[in-house]
Amino acid sequence: MYIEIDFDSEEALYMQLRNQIVIGIAKKVYREGDSLPSVRQLAETVGINMHTVNKAYSVLKQEGLIRLNRGKGAVIALDADKLKAIEEMRLNLQIVLAKACCKNISREEVHGLVDEIFNEY
Fold first, then answer.
1. How many whole angstroms from its chain centre is CA 58?
2. What is the rounded CA–CA span in Å between residue 61 and residue 31?
3. Domain boundaries 13-76, corresponding CATH code
4. How does pLDDT run across 33-91, given as a tens digit for each residue?
5. Which of 14, 20, 19, 15 is nearest to 1 (CA)?
6. With contact defined as beta carbons under 8 Å apart, do 80 and 38 qualify?
7. Nearest alpha carbon to residue 54 among 68, 34, 33, 71
8. Is the pTM of this model over 0.85?
9. Mind telling me which PANTHER family this protein's record contains (predicted)?
10. 21 Cβ partners below 8 Å, 6+ apart?
11. What string of H, E and C letters represents the secondary structure of the chain?
12. How far is Cα 74 from Cα 111, in angstroms, rounded to an integer?
């Protein structure tokens, strides 16, 4: 597992870690049933605190992307509840699109960005 943390970023370390794992799942670097490193292993490899890794894993679990197994660590376990995922996406997109409107970003520009990003996965 290759994770790169930007210690100078304003984004919280646990969110950087979470985001990289989400992107890895979307790009099929990590697949259903794959084990993630233990909290201790990943903390040592990346050079961050174990609590930071634990927080990232907790967020991923809440989002239905991993399952935490006692003694076996974290495993990729994608949530099958598509309707719930769509509603969550709707809520997130409302804020993103409202900000875009505030910055006079056009519908065409938004669609272009969505297409560009979606094509990466």
1. 12
2. 15
3. 1.10.10.10
4. 899 999 999 999 999 999 999 999 999 999 989 998 877 789 998 876 777 888 889 99
5. 20
6. no
7. 68
8. no
9. GNTR-FAMILY TRANSCRIPTIONAL REGULATOR, HTH-TYPE TRANSCRIPTIONAL REPRESSOR YTRA
10. 3, 30, 36, 56, 60, 65, 66
11. CCCCCCCCCCCCHHHHHHHHHHHHHHCCCCCCCCECCCHHHHHHHHCCCHHHHHHHHHHHHHCCCEEEECCCEEEECCCCCHHHHHHHHHHHHHHHHHHHHHCCCCHHHHHHHHHHHHHCC
12. 35
- The two three-digit tokens of residue 48, written as one number: 């961050």
Residue 97: both structure tokens together: 């699109």
Residue with tokens 């409202």: 98
Question: CA nearest 52: which of 1, 3, 92?
Answer: 3
Identify the burial level of 54 via C-beta atoms within 10 angstroms of its C-beta, where 0-12 means exposed, 13-18 middle and 19 or more buried: middle
Rg of the chain taking only CA atoms, in angstroms: 16
